[in-house]
Amino acid sequence: MTVSHDHILIVDDDAEIRSLLADYLEKQGLRCTTAADGREMKAALERHRVDLIVLDLMLPGEDGLTLCRNLRAGGPFMNTPVLMLTARGEDMDRIVGLEMGADDYLAKPFVPRELYARVRAILRRARALPPNLEGSPAERAAELRFAAWRLDIAGRNLIDTDGVVVPLSGAEYRMLMVFLTHPQRVLSRDQLMELTQGREADVFDRSIDLLVSRLRQRLRDNAREPGILKTVRNEGYVLACTVTAVDSPAGER
Description:
This protein is of the alpha/beta class. It folds into 2 domains: 7-127, 3-Layer(aba) Sandwich (Rossmann fold); 137-246, Winged helix-like DNA-binding domain superfamily/Winged helix DNA-binding domain (Arc Repressor Mutant, subunit A), CATH 1.10.10. The chain has helices spanning 15-27, 38-47, 64-72, 91-99, 112-127, 170-180, 189-197, 207-218, and strands at 7-11, 31-35, 52-56, 82-87, 104-108, 143-146, 149-152, 157-159, 165-167, 229-232, 236-239, 243-246. A 5-stranded parallel β-sheet has the order 2-1-3-4-5, sandwiched between helices. A 5-stranded antiparallel β-sheet has the order 9-8-7-6-12, with no helix packed on it. Strands 10-11 form a two-stranded antiparallel sheet. Strand 8 (157-159) and strand 9 form a beta hairpin. Helix 1 crosses helix 5. The protein is globular. The termini are far apart.
């Protein structure tokens, strides 16, 4: 077994589930901290550096959706990956969870091995260069410029022409990077799912459409007649503009 330095925070009000998941993940070489609710989660985040949060949707007090939304609103844990645990069959909860900024979801009941596989996949995605980036000029770029926007790669911030910063969730950032490293190329939903989440989409999975919709909102792209992220009927989506890699941000040359 390879010992990992990755630290997982498990937030669930069921003590048995917390213990079971922590024991299993620690046997796989991960470090784990547990919390029963939002108050304990916030206290744990103040004490520890956390690489990923496993967050149950149904919690006493502030629920998982509220906690995820607050994380994504800003602060030191804005980009910390979140794996949302939802009730099986509650599709709307999954959709809203992704809209709030969760990186992936897993429906209960599940086997710990499946949770571990999702955790490892999310951690790999969070650290890996986006596809097509390695070896390209973008690998060394500090910024990627497209349409009227700049993407600060180090800060993972979207910046408009007035210098206003638009923060992105981890899932939104990865999706945008996939488009920016595959400009003017039609990408199917299956390709986007594989490139951003490392798994195949099922028939009812709307996460890709939701992420594209959220990116259009961030980019102020007209949903009815988008000029940046265009829909190609029966095929997928395409970034319909050129992308320029810049070695250093404006003003630092």
